Amino acid sequence: MSDLNSVNIDRNLLIANQFAIDGEVIDVVPFGSGHINDTFKVTTSGTTKYLLQRINHHIFQNVDGLMENIRIVIEQLKDDFRNKGLREEVINQKVLTLIRTKSGLAYYRDEDGGYWRTFILLDNTKSYDVVETTTQAFEGGMAFGHFQKQLSNLDAQKLVEILPNFHNVDFRLSNLRKAILEDNTNRVGEVQDLLDYIFALEGRMRTILEWGKEGKLPLRITHNDTKFNNVLLDQDDKAQCVIDLDTVMPGYIAYDFGDAIRTIINSGAEDEADLDLVVLNIPLFEAYAKGYLSEAREFLNEYEKESLLPGVFLLPYMQGVRFLTDYLESDHYYKIHYPTHNLVRTKAQLKLVKELEKHEDQLKDILARAIGQ
Ligand code: GN1
Ligand code: MG
């Protein structure tokens, strides 16, 4: 092990010890597959395990606002379960629990200016990068639908827009245009076909934004990172807890629906290099839609229901735009594991959009049936 690694391990142990955890810290090891924050699993001499995270404060520049958003959402979710008569032990399996520092703060600031926070780790749970069964998809849909429902009474203005314009397609496209003009990496030439495809679709991707501006879609509190691996399932594949609350903020529900479908309907990985594997798994789409609507049908307005399909197209498209922008800007935003990673991710997302286009009528029918049920 390099000296640097052992220094980091010692540092991580010291940092874990800043939090009001039970028992002695025994071990801190890297955990999960997030693209932004650094996440570690903390094992202690006690029975509870913890999740220690260094927040990427270049991206989340308002860490106080971020942690306050999360606190408000956690409280709302827990209160809702309390009102339904659930016991605290049960609630703590369904909602994340934030562990404060020993001095009572929501995060710890290290000597290098890093921001750290700790949650209880929900043991005996599973998360899937690629969904395998319709039961899992249905359960995921219920979980995210229920999550939105529980937050539907909370005033969206109570949360700060922690990453402004996060799912605003005009903003994402204008960032891409800026990256093309600057072409700091000399990569624009090699991606011209991808850019042509992106700009040809631009018009149809603006539906949600326009309906929002016209007041047809209410701003609600949404999750904004509903990748399927952000819902934990129990050992029987029953949905247990929605995680990764960093981007909870005001948004349109179609963004959450579309982002979940992006990861569910794709038979390949988000960064699949073999584009032949990026094909649609339509039964999983149907199962997620049914699960989601079983919870959400009662509180969505008619435009919101109609916005679900545009959301399915928009989110993989916008994810492709974001990965490509990062590729053109020399990969400063997403963690990459090899030099062309963001390019491979872009191609996989845009291939997914093409597949969705091919099957649009079928998807529309399935959604209409699920909405009507
Ligand atoms: C990022 O770090 P992670 O994996 O939770 C990103 C999401 C993207 C996702 C793509 C704050 O999420 O918006 O959809 O990668 N989060 C942020 O996998 O940009
Ligand atoms: Mg996230």
Provide the descriptors you would attach to this structure in a database record:
373 residues; alpha+beta; Aminoglycoside 3'-phosphotransferase, Chain: A, domain 2; binds magnesium ion
Task: Describe the protein in words.
- The protein is α+β, with helices and mostly antiparallel strands.
- The chain folds into 2 domains: 3-120, Phosphorylase Kinase, domain 1; 134-372, Aminoglycoside phosphotransferase (APH), C-terminal lobe (Aminoglycoside 3'-phosphotransferase, Chain: A, domain 2, Alpha-Beta Complex), CATH 3.90.1200.10.
- The chain is built from 12 helices and 10 strands.
- The chain has helices at residues 3-16, 63-83, 88-94, 134-151, 169-182, 192-201, 207-213, 253-264, 282-296, 302-328, 341-358, 360-372; strands at 25-30, 38-44, 50-55, 98-99, 108-109, 115-120, 220-222, 231-233, 239-242, 249-251.
- Helix content is 47%, strand content 11%.
- Helix 4 (134-151) packs antiparallel against helix 8 (253-264), helix 8 crosses helix 10 and helix 9 runs parallel beside helix 12.
- Strand 2 (38-44) and strand 3 form a beta hairpin.
- It is globular.
- Strands 1, 2, 3, 4, 5 and 6 form a 6-stranded antiparallel β-sheet that branches. Strands 7-10 form a two-stranded antiparallel ribbon. Strands 8-9 form a two-stranded antiparallel ribbon.
- Bound molecules: 2-acetamido-2-deoxy-1-O-phosphono-alpha-D-glucopyranose (GN1) and magnesium ion.
- The site of 2-acetamido-2-deoxy-1-O-phosphono-alpha-D-glucopyranose has 11 residues, from loops.
